[in-house]
Amino acid sequence: MIDFKNLAKKYDTPLYVYDFDLIENNFKDLKEAFKARKSLICYAVKANSNLSVLKKLNSLGSGADCVSIGEIKRALLAGIPKYKIVFSGVGKKDSEIEEALKLDILFINLESEAEMLRVEEIARKLGKKARISIRVNPNIDPKTHPYISTGLHENKFGVEIDVAKRMYLKAHRSSFLEPVGIHFHIGSQLTELEPIKEASQIVADLTKSLIKIGIDIKFFDVGGGLGIKYKDEKTIKPYDYAQAIFSTLKGLDVTVVCEPGRFLVGNAGYFLTKVLYEKISGKKRFIIVDGGMNDLLRPSLYNAYHRVEVVGKKGDESLADVVGPVCESGDFFAKDRLLPKTEHNDLIVIYSAGAYGFVMSSNYNSRPRVAEVAIENKNDRIIRQRESFEDLIAKEVDFI
Length: 400
Ligand code: LLP
Hints:
Layout: H1 4-11, E1 15-19, H2 20-33, E2 39-44, H3 51-59, E3 63-66, H4 69-77, E4 85-87, H5 94-103, E5 107-110, H6 113-126, E6 130-135, H7 161-173, E7 177-183, H8 193-212, E8 219-221, H9 238-246, E9 255-258, H10 262-265, E10 269-281, E11 284-289, H11 298-302, E12 308-310, E13 317-323, E14 332-340, E15 347-350, E16 371-376, E17 379-384, H12 389-393
Parallel strand pairs: 1-16, 2-3, 2-9, 3-4, 4-5, 5-6, 6-7, 7-8, 8-9, 11-13
Antiparallel strand pairs: 1-10, 10-11, 10-15, 12-15, 13-14, 16-17
The protein binds ligand LLP.
Residues 44, 47, 65, 88, 148, 185, 188-189, 223-226, 259-263, 298, 302, 355-356 line the site of ligand LLP.
């Protein structure tokens, strides 16, 4: 059990707390599920890019799936070897492509023909051969929230099968491109196996046809997306996930690359916030807390459900909204939840905040970003200092 009260006292609130032992268990579960084949887990850095989190995952053997040169640099700084780093994303800048090629990472996931031309051109300029993989859009409905669904043609991600074929043939003939992988990612917070299996089958069939014509695909990158329990969702077991993918790969000698973000860190993170006031407005009861949408955006942005608990209080429950101090009606963490009567300084824990929490925070309303703390082997330590007013204005010039 984590002593939330003690952590809030020691580090103040709002605060992110990460359970590193749980991250380790999650990583080991997934690695174990993939053990029947060659595999590489490339943690999706976007989910939580704190350097200590990356360092922890590196110590377990994880690689990194990065979507900007900033994430690549974070991964390298945390010790993740360049040969375990892949670079994804729908809009990479020339400067980012150039740096990635110079850094000699494992491969770049391409998302359009135009992007392939840029990568080829930049590789030519550098006198290099760029290792690439192409993100195929299998046109499968992943049955998740539309904002985090990516595998349909109506989404901006990847290319259609026919376009992918054309790109592979072109890349194969180029002196500056080396197609080594194939990639798909149909969405995030996936809770159904069938769409993943269907997508994997489509991409595996394409892989077979490419290998037949001499294109040596070594990496089969299945993206991320494994969902977690926020409330009462049924989730996919890592073993079943791996088996579903393996069942589509018969006869293929490929390394399976997987890019989980949320699965590894989501349920290992807690957001701690203190009650400022309660108020009743008409029939509505509001619990106003010191954390805001700028600190944890998911409820406001996706109407996402996060479990909320008042630490150490039970009984006398009635419906309430838990809201922050930011000047937006969308600034809420929970709506219409049965919660006990609270008082000034009561502590609230918001669960499942380890993925897409701190990384999506901002300084809106001139609020400094909060501190992050790790718990490992029952010891806690600060892994990111709380920002100060000076940090907020550090980059502003020409105002005196
Ligand atoms: N690989 C690719 C190419 C991705 O686009 C993503 C997530 C991942 C891997 C990792 O997905 P995960 O295993 O974490 O589901 N901010 C949203 C989620 C956005 C996901 C974007 N891409 C949220 O808070 O739910």
